[in-house]
Amino acid sequence: MEVIHLKYPHKLVASDVPYSLAVGFFDGVHSGHQKVIQAAIDNAVRLQCKSAVMTFDPHPSIVLGGRNEKVFYITPLEQKIEKLKELGVDTLFVVNFTSDFAKLTPESFVQYFVRGLNIKHVSAGFDFSFGAFGKGNMAMMQQLAGDDFGVTVVGKFEQENEKVSSTRIRQALQDGEMEQAHALLGRPFEVPGIVVHGDKRGRTMGFPTANVQPIEGSFVPSTGVYAVKILVQDEWHNGVCNVGYKPTFNDPSLKQLSIEVNIFEFDKNIYGEQVVVAWYKRIRSEQKFNGIEALIQQIELDKQQAIAFFQ
Predict the structure, then answer these.
(1) Please, what's the b/e burial string for 217-256 (b: 16 or more CB within 10 A of its CB; e: otherwise)?
(2) Where in the chain are all domains bearing CATH 3.40.50.620?
(3) Could you identify which of 63, 85, 152, 225 might form a hypothetical disulfide with 1, taking C-beta atoms 3.0 to 4.6 angstroms apart as the criterion?
(4) Is 258:223 a contact under the CB 8 Å cutoff?
(5) Average of pLDDT values for 104-124?
(6) What is the pLDDT of residues 60-106, one digit of tens each?
(7) Can you give the pLDDT at residue 141?
(8) Each residue of 131-181: pLDDT tens digit?
(9) Is the Cα torsion angle 98, 11, 17, 117 positive or negative in sign?
(10) Angstrom distance (rounded) from CA 261 to CA 306
């Protein structure tokens, strides 16, 4: 998949090969987003052109000032690129969302980022908006298209009579509802990261762990113990993961979040390795124990629950 970064005003020469484009922020590349992307791929086949996706970086709320808190992505850009590649997209346009870009009128957006890129068909969700203050909607997209390009509006995609959305997935992750997040995403939620040195306490207790530092901007699920899989050197392994602050050992005022994975039947040294943690089920909440023996007994129970889940 070719990845093309664009910034307004861009100087990209329009491709000789036309595109069928899916446009949206697509955080999570969830099952609803996949309907929009598949529509673009299907239209590319029909029109005998390349399929493309247009996304934006960073999150518009960072530029528009709508949020004071740090923005966390369900799929940071690197991971989003991987997911789109897996879906079979030919080209990805990553538009740098800046203050100048945010001021574009809907007409200018279509002129620069649709006609200017030789887009022959646009697919987007029914609620996609574009242009300054989100004034452009899909009805306007159809009006502005004229005879220059086709437009597909993908309707609301629901599960359990509720729209599948990134907001709903974030709430599931915050609540530790990994099975619901899995259903909404169409795959297990994943956090990419790197294995770093920890306090190595787990090793002395008979449960060595990989201490995973998530990549910047990743959304980490709520504290607790989870059944997970971890991708190490292109191979998936089952494990049990603790997300939290280790209250049995640490001062409660020290809020240093850790992600520690005990990988079953695994004894390699993997410090510095890039890994992916896939989250399947929340086993319990994090708790403080009265001593190491009680903690060891509980970790063994957690491990057995995770093993039973994967069996």
Answers:
(1) bbbbbbbbbbbbbbbbeeeebbbbbbbbbbebeeeeeeee
(2) 2-162
(3) 85
(4) no
(5) 95
(6) 777 776 555 566 789 999 999 999 999 999 999 999 999 899 999 99
(7) 97
(8) 998 899 999 999 999 999 999 999 888 888 888 898 899 999 989 999 999
(9) positive
(10) 12
The Cβ of residue 19 has, within 10 Å, a number of other Cβ atoms equal to 28
Tokens representing 291?
A: 């001593």
CATH 2.40.30.30 given to domain 188-310 = yes
CA neighbours closer than 13 Å in the CB half-sphere of residue 239: 28
pTM of the model: 0.85
Task: Indicate the residue type of 284.
Answer: R
**Residues spanned by CATH 2.40.30.30 within the chain?**
188-310
Do the Cβ atoms of 94 and 77 come closer than 8 Å?
yes
pLDDT by residue (tens digit) across 290-302? 767 888 888 899 9
Three-class HEC string of the chain: CEEEEECCCCCCCCCCCCEEEEECCCCCCCHHHHHHHHHHHHHHHHHCCEEEEEEEECCHHHHHCCCCCCCCECCCHHHHHHHHHHCCCCEEEEEECCHHHHCCCHHHHHHHHCHHHCEEEEEEECCCCECHHHCECHHHHHHHHCCCCEEEEECCCEECCEECCHHHHHHHHHCCCHHHHHHHHCCCEEEEEEEECCCCHHHHCCCCCEEEEECCCECCCCCEEEEEEEEECCEEEEEEEEEECCCCCCCCCCCCCEEEEEECCCCCCCCCCEEEEEEEEEEECCCCCCCHHHHHHHHHHHHHHHHHHHC
